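Hi, here's the filled form for the chain we discussed.

Project: internal
Contact: R.S.
Residues: 235
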Amino acid sequence: MGNLKFEERYDRNFNTLSPEEQKNLGASKVVVIGLGGLGGTVCEMMARVGIGHLTLIDGDVFEPSNLNRQLLSEEHLMGFPKAKAAKKRVNAINSRVIVNHLVEYVDESNLYERIKDTDVVMDCLDSIDTRFKLQDAAKKALVPIVSGAIAGVTGQVTTIIPGDSGYELIYGKKSRKQSKGVETRTGNMAYCAFLVAALQSSECLKLLLGRGDTLHNKLLIAELWTNTFEIVDLV
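And the returned structure, exactly as it came back:
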């Protein structure tokens, strides 16, 4: 990846990133689970920044209600699997990215196998129950999680390192039985989804490169009606 084409593609990354850091990203593996409002935008950013290996997982297909916020959704793709659209989009942006796309839902039966060989897993799920199952699998696999969630014009981001209490500090233990988050009642705005996806992508790069201050044991909350941004200590 040291030829002129490589240098030109990532030219605007440099000075923010070093050539060595760019090469490290090219060797990195990231799993994105959930390819809706958050996950579709995370895929876009991962492809453009130069993550070398992406595993993209979602069992769902596009429906009209996705069009207000999901970057990958287009009118002609109604009924089309989100994972297939994500792969096509990533490779249209960056043909160097090795993409494994899986049209499937995740649960305790397959989560560990899907994430065991990755460097970071991006939680773009809309199910609290599945988030807890992901945390259990990530603990076993020794893989960090970057988690994002949105509801209306409010979003949150945190980073969970294996062994953390993680989601219990945000949702409480009883929420393990809760299937959907509050976004099912509030709706979601596109600009909030894109903002949270950008924050998740930033966290991912910090973890991969070992640079900057992450949101480990912290919860960033953004509320866009009032332009309120707050970071809460979880421990």
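Let me know if anything looks off before we file it.
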